[in-house]
Amino acid sequence: APEIFFKILEKGKGKLVPLKEVAEVRFGIKTGANEFFYLTEEEIKRWKIEKEFWMHKDESGNWVPNYVIESAEESSKPQIEYSILKKRLLFVDKTEDKLKNKNVLRYIKYGEQKGFDKRPTCASRKPWYNLGKNINDIIAFPERIRLRHIVFYNPHRVSLNKNLYGIEPINKELAKVLSITLNSTIILLYLELFARQLGGGGGPLDIDVYVVKDILIPKEEILKSHKEKILDTASILKREIDPIFSELGAESPEEVSLEKVKSDRRKLDKIVMGEILDLTDEEQLEVYRAVIDLVKSRIERAKSVKNKKIVEGVDIDAAK
Predict the structure, then answer these.
(1) Residue-level pLDDT, tens digit, the chain, 320 residues
(2) CA 206 to CA 22: how far, in whole Å?
(3) What radius of gyration, in Å, describes the C-alpha atoms of the chain?
(4) CA 269 to CA 289: how far, in whole Å?
(5) 14 conformational bin, left if phi > 0, alpha if psi -120 to 50, beta if neither
(6) Please, are residues 112 and 129 in contact by the beta-carbon 8 Å criterion?
(7) Pair 169, 139: CB distance under 8 Å
(8) With CB atoms 3.0 to 4.6 Å apart as the test, which of 102, 229, 238, 290 could cross-link to 2 if both were Cys?
(9) How far apart are CA 261 and CA 269, in angstroms?
(10) Residue 41 host element (H or E)
(11) Is-cis flag, bond preceding 127, omega within 30?
(12) How far apart are CA 166 and CA 269, in angstroms?
């Protein structure tokens, strides 16, 4: 790890705790058959599926579709909005004998004809079409990232696919504050150091759930004391997040300067890194340089990895 990381640990002693101490972190929904459970508007109309199975009532008693976000690529902004989502999630918590004369039962029978009920994940459920408890936590953390560091705020509580981890703060009042804080650049530094790099496709980071649980964030009382200042940077949730090179205004560590960092990101980082962790401007520059260096190295490593095949004396087709 770069020297600045150890400086953060030193200055953060007594200030930082693992995320799992202030929030529950869990996997998103694994359906086992997305093509069955994810419904388009056209499919709902064609099968005439009753609204109670693809909608729910919100806190005000209004019927709202069970929108689902499938991956981090679906939203370029940290705040998840209904308008970007195309699919609705099918939730059926009744046995077949209680679904008589319901159109959804015809759809379930169609799914069984297609063999969806025999798939391992589906077969492990009783009945196979019951997804159980909805996972729609107020913060969503992507399982993989490439060049964009983006953690989602989910105020409408749309359902989360298994490509995202759900984060539910213990203190509900800090949900938005925590979601903003997790978009700070210092979090990306942590991920670059502790997540696993995958080959190909730009060398994305594969982020295990335990890595997310162990992300170091300011203690709850510190987040509380800086709540208003952090909320004052909430504009970062409403705009499109660019690749980190554009966010920091530099393609190499040598090009980094505080003035080039996007204004709302810089404002947030000054609070998290400067006010909370007492990092000097020069030390904050080192964080940015380290992030640029680590991301750039990750991409270059991915480009250098080539598939090597030893074919002498081997029947490749037979081996396959």
Answers:
(1) 899 999 999 999 999 999 999 999 999 999 999 999 999 999 999 999 999 999 998 888 899 999 999 999 999 999 999 989 999 999 999 999 999 999 999 999 999 999 999 999 999 999 999 999 999 999 999 999 999 999 999 999 999 999 999 999 999 999 999 999 999 999 999 999 999 988 665 689 999 999 999 999 999 999 999 999 999 999 999 999 999 999 999 999 999 999 999 999 999 999 999 999 999 999 999 999 999 999 999 998 877 765 445 556 677 667 66
(2) 23
(3) 23
(4) 14
(5) left
(6) no
(7) yes
(8) 290
(9) 10
(10) helix 41-47
(11) yes
(12) 24
CB 39 within 8 A of CB 90: yes
Rounded-to-integer distance, Cα 194 and Cα 298, Å: 13
CA distance 261 to 299: 21
Helix (H, G, I), strand (E, B) or coil at 216: strand
Residue with tokens 């319901």: 102
Question: Under 8 Å CB-to-CB from 185, ≥6 apart: which residues?
Answer: 149, 244, 247, 248, 265, 269, 273, 287, 288, 291
The residue whose two tokens read 């953390």 is 141
Q: Are 299 and 197 in contact (CB under 8 A)?
A: no
Lookup result for tokens 């806190």: 59
CA distance 116 to 247: 43
Q: Whole-angstrom Cα distance, residue 92 to residue 278?
A: 51
Contact (CB, 8 A) for 146 and 241: no
Residues 157, 186 contacting (CB under 8 angstroms): no
